């Protein structure tokens, strides 16, 4: 055994680029009843390419074979059998090797092996060569995609910015091998499956099979994954010989799908050549790619798939994947089409669709939903994830086996939009995971007019996906069979591991950014090549015709058949004079018009603060069967330590209790979850969750109100105009902490002026319809600033009890959470009570309203500062203070009651925000409309400013006192006038 240790100790690589690390402890092994030790080489690193062995640990190649030999000498190649036998027999380290028998020859028996003892081989060369082969195998697994034939245009715009890729027959010298070794036979390591049933192969064949696996139309990135099982799974899918073979029927189905994808775009181009449609030309294989993912997922038990995508190829996906009626698509191109439904609608390549149909491959029902989304590209990503999570929740799919999501991306947006990164980071969080998403990148290799070399710092646009160890399958989109295989593997990966996976369809964009754009201005080299490029359908059909898989007649009949379908749909579309946007809904809500009834019994104490009012609102809704989901940064405890909806065991880590889930046996579930440090992604997620069902109260709370700034895209593009653009009601609630507390400009304002500016209400028209309901139905969203826990209680309940859904923006307090006067009696929350849109003054001013000289209108926290100042001044009988709790829609009717009650009072709007912020510009014209412009409306508040608040506490207090003085100086406005 000592000879064996000496032999192995001398087996060191001798090239300058290779290093060996020793192991400090020997691994024991019982041999013949005695405990022996073996000190293997622990690590073998090719320093130039910086590619360590599997998962950062050594291959232990010699060691593992030695252990295998000890257990069964026949389990290793004969050459290693001879080495180990000679070493154990005491042969010197340099003389332990004998040449193996020729491949395929008769195996040597024990006697023959023993007869070789004493021969003089170059054992060091043998071991170095075997280790070199293992290093070569790993190099292909790590960097084979660098030389794969991924670009259909073959112009190579990817810049790897690394050392040369040392792969191929001519580069074996880099690994310490030479061309004379190409015919030598090597035992394959356990980290590769290229041998299939064979365990040894000639070097030339090893390289050939590695290049077939990793360097053709598919490039695989997976070696950064730190899970051995997952890496081995991927290796099997791509390395086993003959894995990418398809039946005759599969090839014909693929051709049919390619025909429909290609001919759909050609039909649109022929009929509407001057219309923007953001066609799919150059990536027609996207359609069979998506259908393959859907087919395989359906086979694995998936019943519902929610999809999100940008505008490129959207009409094609609607037609050939979702199966939207072609006449409904074609009629969108008619400029004379009239809108029948309310709302502004949106362009044809932004609209969504929901469809339940039979999957023809699996003969199973499947529901497909393509979410509507704006031109803000990746903004739909978290929305899709939220809706997927909601559907999984409502059908009890805790592992994502029945409901899944597919996200389509553009290459430039995938790399450039931060919400992609945010969405990936939601993928494994317990309250946000959808148990794996298949991401498909339509990689045009250009972003509008921007070359990828100046559009991103990474080699691939997909590198951001590595943050969650998602495997990335790059594939040449002009090889439909390779695309089909990769998509099958991606769907299987998702079903097996329930983790995200990326399919990068490397393609090109045959036209410009849109059909009216001239791309030669900015990409002349690329578009000269594109003009010469054969279409993928032509190339694939020629391939199948050459193989005899289809006949020319069958191919031409398939084209004629689809052309006829398009022509007939086009004829029908001419009869369509009115567009019903309900045909484009991405998730219908059946049965919303039924009102929820009943109230929960009031329990416990007779007075509540803000947190208890919220708790009672949630609890009563849960008892009535309404699922509640509250999400955001630190919402479990509450940013201001007021909520405490999750109780933590003080002695046992991670042991928690959510009391609200133990209210009654038949209650609905309550989900409260701290989110990742994201606003854009998380708000989009919650919006999507709220889309899935109208019978859930879904709330997102900002840590501070102004944090909604970084979610502005979701607010502007989805929440504010959602019903107008897509006739999609949504009842999401935004809780935005707000208030000037002297804490500086960053944590003061929720920017209520922005929300108010986007209200669709006419400030100059006094409504004549029913105020309490009709106004709510007509508005695009509801904005409130409650000053009492009872009103907050009611507004949350009203959000569910009303017969329709509108987004609700709640300007929530900070100091009022514990303000001694901001309390409500339970009497204000008993049956028969309701949300107060305006809270009038009920003090001494009511005794003689004609004597009141001023009525101050305000909203929110400033009410308590005004009442304190009024008490200090003794003006209780001549200054009335009215709180407008619901700002939008504006309570014209109740404001009119107040102004009529005090006919001799001047009108003042008082706010703590700066004049160019807050509510003044919104409220003033509405107050004037209410009084028919017969009385002026004065302002008391801070002056205009660029920042929301001062950062100086003393300055804050000076400003506060100044506007309070103005509000109660009864001569101030007389002097101004």
UniProtKB/TrEMBL annotation:
Cofactor field: thiamine diphosphate; Mg(2+)
EC number(s) per entry: 1.2.4.2
Subcellular location: Mitochondrion; Nucleus
InterPro entries in the record: 2-oxogl_dehyd_N (IPR032106), 2oxoglutarate_DH_E1 (IPR011603), DH_E1 (IPR001017), KGD_C_sf (IPR042179), ODO-1/KGD_C (IPR031717), THDP-binding (IPR029061), Transketolase-like_Pyr-bd (IPR005475)
CDD domains: TPP_E1_OGDC_like
SMART domains: Transket_pyr
Name of the protein: 2-oxoglutarate dehydrogenase complex component E1
Record organism: Oncorhynchus tshawytscha (Chinook salmon)
